[in-house]
Structures are given as C-alpha cells and as structure tokens.
C-alpha cells in the first residue's frame, strides 16, 4: 500500500534525510511499484534515483552493480521477499560509496504478521523482522541488530526506529498497512565508514582550530 509514499511526509520533517541520507545519486531496490524518485523535488540534495526491480535482475545479488557505485541505496519493503536477506543486505551495502548511506524499511513482525507465519497478508514474505528478541513466535524471525552487526566494521548504525506512531495496538487482528497512515515497519539507516575511519576506530573531528570568533558565534560564550 505505497509504503515508500507513506514515509515521505515523515522523512521531510527529519532534516537528516534531506541533508545527509538522500544526497547525490541513489539506487532504489524493489522500488518499481512506488519509487522514491517520484519525490526527488522534495529532497533538494537528491540528484537522481535509479530503480532496480524484477526486470533488472535479482535484488539479492545486484549483478552488474559495481561496489561503491551509489551515494545512497534505498529499499522499502523488499528485504522480506528475499531468500537470503543477509546476502541481500550485504550486496546493497557494497553498492554504497564510503561515506554514503543505506536506508531500508521492513515490516515489524508483531505489527504486520501479528503472530502468524506464513504471513496472512502477504504470502510472498520469506522472513519476518524484529529489532531484537531473545525469542520469537515466528520460525523465520530475524533480528535487525544481528543483521546489521553482520555487515562488519564498515557499517555504522545511524538510525533504528520502530515505525509505530500511527499504529493502533487496541485493534483486533487486522492489516493496518491498508490504511493511509499505518506503516507497521522498522526503519534502518546505515552509513558506510571510509577506510581511514575504520582504521581510526571512529570519526575524528575535522582538522584545524575553531577560532575564538567562531566559538562565540556557535555558543554565545566569550572565550579568553
């Protein structure tokens, strides 16, 4: 039900999407039915988005896409359709340039599948997802924290959010994504650390010295 489109207003009100995540040229994996590129004018630093869908090849392998080809890779509700989500995530991440971002949305198993698998609402789902559980009712449950950790030291987890702002927990079992506002998902944003940052064990501040005037303008305090 146009899950990418549902996310646009929310993302427009979060400055990082305009200023850091959707910057440059991107790849939208599985975006054919509801492409992110429809909204390029709403994210001023986004230069363009190539859609990768079934006619382009296997979303799990991205054959033909070079390592570090895109400034960002986006995927809305595609990972759950893959036979091997970890392999898919690894290939999506390899397509991101150092310093770029991978933005992925998946359904949350409790909000979407609601205790039943195979999925009642989408029979093509191969896996279910949760942020982190010691135990799940789903025989195909995957913890997002485990998946992102498997990407190694280059993957900096920037954002991990359960999208339940419009979810109604008091309703009986019902597919709330059929409503105009129900996202029922988990959003992940990963940044690919450059090699030097991996070597250093994290980000270091920019070189140079902040002048007394700059410090005053930034803080409002006068430094001796």
Report the average pLDDT across residues. 95
Q: If you compute it from the alpha carbons, what radius of gyration comes out, rounded to the nearest whole angstrom?
A: 19 Å
Provide the CATH topology: Rossmann fold
Number of DSSP-assigned strands: 8
Distance between the ends: 59 Å
Helix-strand makeup class: alpha/beta
Helical residues, percent: 10-25%
Instruction: Supply the CATH architecture.
Output: 3-Layer(aba) Sandwich
CATH first level: Alpha Beta
3D shape: globular
Low-confidence stretches at least 5 residues in length (pLDDT < 50)?
Answer: none
In DSSP terms (H or I, runs of 4 or more residues), the helix count works out at 6
Q: What is the N-to-C succession of helices and strands?
A: HHEEEHEEEHEEHH
CATH 4th-level superfamily:
Vaccinia Virus protein VP39
Biggest sheet: strands side by side, in what order?
Answer: 2-1-3-4-8-7
The profile of the biggest β sheet is:
6 strands, mixed
Strand content: 15-25%
Number of individual domains: 1
Descriptive report:
It is a single chain. The chain has a single domain, classed as Rossmann fold (3-Layer(aba) Sandwich). Helix content is 21%, strand content 25%. The chain has six helices and eight strands, in the order H-H-E-E-E-H-E-E-E-H-E-E-H-H. A six-stranded mixed sheet has the order 2-1-3-4-8-7. A two-stranded parallel ribbon has the order 5-6. Strand 3, helix 3 and strand 4 form a beta-alpha-beta unit. The model has no long low-confidence stretch (mean pLDDT 95).
């Amino acid at each position: 039900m146009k899950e990418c489109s549902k996310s646009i207003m929310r993302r427009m009100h979060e400055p990082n999407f305009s200023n850091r995540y959707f910057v440059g040229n991107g790849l939208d994996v599985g975006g054919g039915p509801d492409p992110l590129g429809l909204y390029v004018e709403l994210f001023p630093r986004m230069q363009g988005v190539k859609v990768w869908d079934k006619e382009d090849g296997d979303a799990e392998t991205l054959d033909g896409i070079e390592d570090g080809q895109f400034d960002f890779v986006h995927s809305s509700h595609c990972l759950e359709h893959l036979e091997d989500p970890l392999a898919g995530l690894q290939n999506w991440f390899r397509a991101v340039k150092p310093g770029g971002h991978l933005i992925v949305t998946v359904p949350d198993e409790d909000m979407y599948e609601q205790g039943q698998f195979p999925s009642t609402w989408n029979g093509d789902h191969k896996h279910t997802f949760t942020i982190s559980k010691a135990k799940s009712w789903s025989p195909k449950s995957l913890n997002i924290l485990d998946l992102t950790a498997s990407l190694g030291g280059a993957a900096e987890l920037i954002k991990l959010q359960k999208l339940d702002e419009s979810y109604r927990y008091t309703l009986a079992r019902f597919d709330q994504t059929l409503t105009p506002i129900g996202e029922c998902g988990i959003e992940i944003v990963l940044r690919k650390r450059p090699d030097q940052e991996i070597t250093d064990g994290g980000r270091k501040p920019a070189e140079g010295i902040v002048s007394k005037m700059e410090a005053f303008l930034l803080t409002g305090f006068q430094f001796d």
